[in-house]
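ugh ok fine here u go
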Amino acid sequence: MPKLTRTSYSIKELTNMYANGEIAIPEIQRDFVWDAKRIKLLLDSIQKDYPSGAVILWRPEFSARSEFEMLIRPERLHLYKNRLPAYLLLDGQQRLSPCPKIT
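structure:
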């Protein structure tokens, strides 16, 4: 059974990891659905240093690129043409996705 670990990242660190392709969104995740109001509320919480939820990342060990490609939506594969991401985002897409646009 895989070992679970807890690691703390700042919002800036997570944002950079996401923007740099170190974090990929797997096929199992729904599309981004937050509207401007929800994003504004998240920003307000971040600014006030309120807890804003957790992000769950999975660090898979792929033995072949084809294993990774089965988990990612075809329209996103071009983002990972030259390398595989270190993590797959299992929870927190709605909170993490708008952050690269605002930091």
